Automatic annotation (TrEMBL):
Family: Belongs to the short-chain dehydrogenases/reductases (SDR) family.
PANTHER family given in the database record: 3-OXOACYL-(ACYL-CARRIER-PROTEIN) REDUCTASE, 3-OXOACYL-[ACYL-CARRIER-PROTEIN] REDUCTASE FABG
GO MF terms, alphabetically ordered: oxidoreductase activity
Record has Oxidoreductase as a keyword: yes
InterPro entries referenced in this protein's UniProt entry, alphabetically: NAD(P)-bd_dom_sf (IPR036291), SDR (IPR050259), SDR_fam (IPR002347)
The organism's place on the tree of life at top rank: Bacteria
Keywords: Oxidoreductase
NCBIfam families: PRK07231.1 (NF005559)
Annotated SUPFAM superfamilies: NAD(P)-binding Rossmann-fold domains
Record protein name field: Short-chain dehydrogenase/reductase SDR
Organism this protein belongs to: Kineococcus radiotolerans (strain ATCC BAA-149 / DSM 14245 / SRS30216)
Amino acid sequence: MADRLEGRTALVTGSTSGIGRAVAAVLAARGAHVLVSGRDDTRGRDAVQSLVNAGGTAEYLPADLSAASGVRELADAALDLAGTVDILVNNAGVFSFGSTAGNSEIDIDRMYAINVKAPYLLVQALAPKMVEQGSGTIVNVLTGAAHRGSVTAGLYGSSKAALLLLTTAWAAEFGPSGVRVNAVSPGPIRTEGTANGAGLDAVARALPARRLGEPVEVAAAVAFLASDDASYIHGAILPVDGGAIAA
Ligand SMILES: NC(=O)c1ccc[n+]([C@@H]2O[C@H](COP(=O)([O-])OP(=O)(O)OC[C@H]3O[C@@H](n4cnc5c(N)ncnc54)[C@H](OP(=O)(O)O)[C@@H]3O)[C@@H](O)[C@H]2O)c1
């Protein structure tokens, strides 16, 4: 039963939607107390209600991760509420695609604030408690665009490549204290955030899997890495991409 998560508190950023919401559902179904987070209160409360209806326990912590103050408030609220966060899933992220010339300074700052700085500050705030208790897991959500350059994904891919590097750096830093840090790297997944994404189906058709992925398929991988089933796995980047890594 090493996949069970009873007695553990999980903070899942960006769990009002898409992949994060599916992660929250799978972690709650395995017994974790889940702290749902995002900016949209209606979607946040709805997510919590659906976890509770399914037999889990959850609470909603609103947060805007685009500002450092919002990130720190979220970390403080999570620690106030739960005492410690045993599982941190850095899922919240923004993605946009375009030419280098087309990205404004505001676009650059926003992408890096949410995709890199927010996970960094959360780990800075929450990892010390994990270290103190000698256990904890962190799972970062990357993207295929972090592994190779492509014409329109330089800004987005580079932000997630930074998080990829941090995954291995944090695994090295915190592993000796009993804290495991890993990542999943999703391929094209149909979510609220990608619902209008032109070309996603065409990308999916070219994959070995020949289809888009479902949020729950990413969630299952996150839950595995967060659980004791993955007890000897540190610093791994698990592709959940329909075989894009092999195509
Ligand atoms: N879908 C894909 O094909 C795909 C592929 C590879 C990687 N990913 C990665 O997977 C993660 C989730 O993607 P998704 O497709 O599930 O996206 P989504 O449906 O757009 O969900 C994004 C989540 O992030 C939250 N969020 C966005 N900006 C935020 C902010 N400033 N402060 C706090 N929360 C914020 C949103 O919450 P609120 O709206 O409530 O603020 C929402 O819960 C992202 O990191 C993305 O880069 C996705």
